Amino acid sequence: MIALNVLARRLFGQITAVLCLLVFSGNASAFLEDSGARKDIKDLQEKTDQQSLQVKNQIQELISSIKSLENRLQGVELTIQSQALMDLLAQVERVSGQISFLKGDLEVIQHHLDQALQREKSLYEDIDSRLKKLEAAAASQQTQAAATPAPAANPEGASQAAETKQFNDAMTQLNEGQFKLAFESFNQFIQANPSSKLLPEAQYHLALSQFSLKNFKAAMLTQQKLISLYPESTRIADAKMMVANCQIQLSDIQSAKQTLRDLIAQHPDSEVIPVAKKRLAVLNSLKK
Questions:
Q1: Which of 57, 193, 211, 281 could make an SS bond with 219 (beta carbons 3.0 to 4.6 A apart)?
Q2: For 19-43, how does the pLDDT look when each residue is reduced to its tens digit (9 = 90+)?
Q3: What is the DSSP string of 24-78?
Q4: Which CATH superfamily is domain 161-285 in?
């Protein structure tokens, strides 16, 4: 811009000089009548005309240069605006993907919570039924106590009741959000009761405690152990679903997709299938 201003000032000076020469030549022709003076005036006019033409050409070139700069400036502005718009659209897309991902997480957590509550309710009902049977048996034994010797203690029944109580206490800790205590309790239960029928449940809820403590790799390994040791357990589909969730948390998206595909194909009637399909759709929608 500074160079353009200097050039304009130079052109203005040249134009002023030309006008002065024209005025001078007009006045001189009135006083000089000889042919030599007229010839000088004519030469001066021709020179002035040439300079005037040069000035006009330079002005035209200057105007063209200004227009060219304006066009280039507009092009730069459009490029900047276009790039800013693309960046904004990319940010919106990323935020939308994160929102969908979080919605999927909420659905999975809600599903696991509902399942845990349902399992707990069923477990309590089973325990209550067993206790009623034990109470009935104890009452029957008391009526026969006067006529017959007291029966020997039933260590198996007492052991089963203690086992059930230990599992129950761990479930209570888990449902109350005491995840570290629940993890320790389930781990102790598994170590103390290697032949218990509740081992698959204990293994599953041990992994759930680890997941709640954000120890995703350990939770995934625990569920994979459950799948390997107890392939007939009713918890297999739930365990695979949690494996996929752990893989997602560990940013292993491709493995999570494959786990979800296997789950849908191998357990089409499981209650977790609707959630698994939604989660797989969300993962497929994410850009690599």
A1: 211
A2: 555 444 544 454 445 566 667 777 7
A3: HHHHHHHH--SHHHHHHHHHHHHHHHHHHHHHHHHHHHHHHHHHHHHHHHHHHHH
A4: Tetratricopeptide repeat domain (1.25.40.10)
